[in-house]
């Protein structure tokens, strides 16, 4: 069996009221919460994947502002290793209510609300990335050398 890593993107978006853009979705028979996130498609630039996933899952156009970090997570449910390129983004405008299959709704939640979700979070990376963001972690987008753009 050949090991194949999974490249994903995610984006932390905070509004002026200190709330974070979150996605309520169905995953493996459970309802969970996550940042806007998903797999990078073949021949897709990383930053384009961030914009696309946010729009498809929340209906919001976002613009990546900074790179937050690369996170590795091996999901206990399926044993798959995910490499999560996480960004900090700014919400530009809400443009649609039509969301991807499996997405229940997009929400703006406070950090306290997110913490109270506990085991309803898709992975420990949800809180970890928000905490890294709140602790001032950020890198310029230029650290992503993407030949697709």
Automatic annotation (TrEMBL):
Monomer. Keywords: Hydrolase, Magnesium. Residues 4-134 form the Nudix hydrolase domain. Its EC number is 3.6.1.-. It holds the Pfam family NUDIX. It comes from the Bacteria. Belongs to the Nudix hydrolase family. NudJ subfamily. This is Phosphatase NudJ. Its cofactor is Mg(2+). GO terms for molecular function: hydrolase activity.
């Amino acid at each position: 069996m050949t090991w194949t890593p999974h490249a994903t993107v995610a984006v932390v978006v905070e509004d002026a009221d200190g709330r974070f853009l979150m996605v309520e979705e169905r995953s493996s028979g459970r309802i969970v919460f996550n940042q806007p996130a998903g797999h990078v498609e073949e021949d897709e630039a990383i930053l384009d994947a961030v914009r696309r996933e946010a729009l498809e899952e929340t209906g919001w156009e976002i613009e990546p502002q900074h790179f937050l970090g690369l996170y590795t997570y091996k999901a206990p449910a399926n044993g798959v290793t995910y490499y999560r390129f996480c960004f900090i983004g700014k919400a530009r405008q809400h443009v649609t209510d039509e969301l991807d299959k499996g997405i229940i709704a997009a929400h703006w939640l406070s950090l306290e609300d997110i913490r109270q979700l506990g085991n309803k979070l898709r992975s420990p990376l949800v809180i970890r990335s928000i905490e890294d963001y709140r602790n001032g972690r950020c890198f310029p987008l230029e650290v992503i050398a993407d030949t697709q753009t």
